[in-house]
Structure formats: C-alpha cells, structure tokens
Design a protein that fits this description.
By secondary structure, the chain is of the alpha/beta class. About 45% of the residues lie in helices and about 20% in strands.
Amino acid sequence: MRQLPRVYPVVDRAEWIRRLLPLGVRLVQLRVKDRPVEELRAEIREAKALCADAGAQLIVNDHWELVLAEKCDFVHLGQGDLDTTDVSALRKGAIKIGISTHDALELERALSLEPDYIALGPIYPTRLKVMPWAPQGLSRLAEWKRRAGSIPLVAIGGLTVERLPGVFAAGADVAAVVTDIVRSADPETRTREWLAAASAWP
C-alpha cells in the first residue's frame, strides 16, 4: 500500500500550516477558495516552503495549473475538476493525485485514473457547507475500501477525534479533518488529540 500519514488537517491559509506543523502534522491540505490567482500562488508558495522545512507533504485543493507550476506534492481534485484537468501533465510532472468520490460511478471514474488516494465523504453530517449527498456512513467506507484495494482511502466530512476509531475500523486509511480543528476553541490542543488518537492505529 502507498503509505500516507493517518491524519491530515484541511485549512484555508498558509498561516494555519505554520501553526500546525510544529505539533507533528506531516500531511496537510490547503483549500483556498475565491482568491485572485496571485494571492493563491503566494499562499501555495508559503505553504510549500513551510512543509518542505518541516519534512511534511502538501496537498493543494484544485488549481492544478498552479500545483504543476509550483511543483507541489499532491493535487486534490473533485469530480468536476477532472473535466478540465490535464491528468497526463500532472503525471509527467510527478504530481500525486487525490480524487473525491461520492457514489459508485464517481468511484469507477476515479479508479480508472489510478490515483494516489481516493476520498469518500461526507462520512457524517458536516457544518462546513451544504452537501448534495447524504452522509455516507461507515458501511460505505468498508465497501469503498474493498473496491479501492491498495489505493489509500481518505475519509472526510464531520469527523471528530471521538469518531476516529470507527472510521479506521471501517477501512479508512486516512482521516481528513476540517472543522474539528479549525473551529476548535483550542486548535493546537485538538490537533495533538487527533495525532495521539491516530498513533494508536498502525
């Protein structure tokens, strides 16, 4: 299996990455929406430099052209992004690819591209945004893992530290966390709790 850290935060600013890397985070996703291109580029460059200094890997959500130009580790693509992304160019540039999935057809499409990980969500109801999909639940995670085989499976959506054991037991290789860290009253402590909980799972 292609190994990834068991947990990664999803954040919208490089400043978050600066705060979380010293705690032991070694994989992080930068998801920036509705910003001018040059601001996006600046955020990506700062995030990449921070990760490089810490020995961590960076996933950038969307913006595949910038990811390619800046030579980031990963790009995370939604199904809609796949329609306009030059996957072969990313492969030639040695950019690893993660793909969101929500139903069986999307999973088949993702598997056909041989990605470096597949994400399934939302596992639980999420406060982040209104989703057109019902919560997937743990049984869907188990089904996805059977079909994904050796490709790492990332669970996302409504995850908390308390829900982490069930998510891993159902078959997720990695848990992506958004609001449980960035909306916590004490994000640093909550991040430590996430990392400690994940360390119990080899």
